[in-house]
Design brief:
Keywords: Membrane, Transmembrane, Transmembrane helix. By secondary structure, the protein is mainly α. Helix content is 78%, strand content 0%.
Length: 306
């Protein structure tokens, strides 16, 4: 039973999101000094090295031309999302950026309907809307009592953030399209290698080599970034996109804790009230997916393999 729980797609997604929030906090802390261009390029380079090594070690078959074209487009879109979101992190509070970033989850179900024809569950839609209300409430208390530091541009940060969320909704649906055809190792490899190939010539050509002291941080970001996408690929291969999308809301809790510890960002009561609503919506979707499977299979929930 315990093994089944840890192998469940919802649990895998929660772990991946917690790690992703840790990456966001690290980016927010080091990007101003290390340089966003260096951070992105070297994060993807180290992630690509790790991902390619795992790909070769597992002796995965060489991808076909059609897969390479698909993953190149998806990788470039992933790079755009990473750049805009990382920039937003440098301009906004961590909890605020995380909360507003949840709008991507609200777009996943309609994007999945348009792109891959995935049916939208009314319960999933209702739960996502409930979660969005929780996000709205949480944003009002995301940084109560704190003003943004000098040099921050909130407007540009918000524009970058919402640009990232729109692209991220498509990235998640594209991930779902390939997760049922290819293994997580291959997808994670492309996710890191494509952005690295695109960024490194620009970085070396215009910005040179980074400070050596920053390389361990970039390595940590690369390893964590690879792990997040590997776990998310596993999760999306086992469950519909609309079932996992609201689980993204749990990042709000992690961002509030990390923002408080490392950046002295004190969330108001609204954030915690919103977090309760968000978690409730996640549970609704998770349990609804399980019981819907039970109805389709004609079996008791306890008889359905995880």
């Amino acid at each position: 039973m315990l093994t089944r729980f840890f192998a469940a797609p919802v649990f895998i997604a929660v772990i991946a999101i917690a790690m992703g929030t840790g990456i966001d906090a690290l980016v927010k802390g080091v990007a101003p000094n290390a340089g966003l261009h260096h951070l992105l390029a070297w994060r993807f380079l180290f992630g690509g090295i790790i991902a390619f090594a795992v790909f070769k070690a597992k002796r995965r078959p060489a991808p076909k031309a059609e897969a390479i074209r698909f993953h190149t487009i998806r990788g470039l879109l992933q790079l755009f999302c990473a750049f805009t979101f990382f920039y937003a992190l440098t301009q906004l509070r961590l909890a605020e950026a995380t909360a507003l970033g949840f709008t991507a989850a609200l777009m996943v179900a309609p994007v999945a309907r348009i792109v891959i024809g995935e049916k939208i569950s009314p319960v999933a839609v209702a739960a996502a809307l409930i979660g969005f209300l929780g996000v709205l409430l949480a944003v009002t208390g995301s940084g109560a009592g704190n003003d943004l530091a000098d040099g921050k541009n909130r407007t540009l940060g918000l524009i970058a953030l919402f640009s990232s969320t729109i692209g991220y909704a498509f990235v998640l649906v594209f991930l779902r399209m390939r997760a049922t055809k290819e293994d997580a190792t291959t997808i994670a490899m492309f996710t890191n290698v494509v952005p690295a190939i695109a960024l490194l010539p620009i970085t070396f050509g215009f910005f040179g080599f980074p400070v050596l002291a920053s390389l361990p941080v970039f390595l940590a970001l690369g390893a964590a970034g690879y792990s997040v996408w590997f776990l998310m690929t596993l999760a999306y291969a086992k469950a519909p996109a609309q079932q996992l999308a609201p689980i993204e809301y749990t990042a709000l809790i992690w961002s509030a804790v990390l923002g408080l510890i490392f950046f002295d960002e004190w969330p108001g009561w609204q954030l915690w009230a919103g977090a309760v609503i968000i978690i409730t919506s996640c549970m609704i979707v998770a349990f609804e997916g399980r019981f819907r499977t039970r109805r389709q299979a004609g079996l008791p929930a306890s008889d359905i393999p995880e």
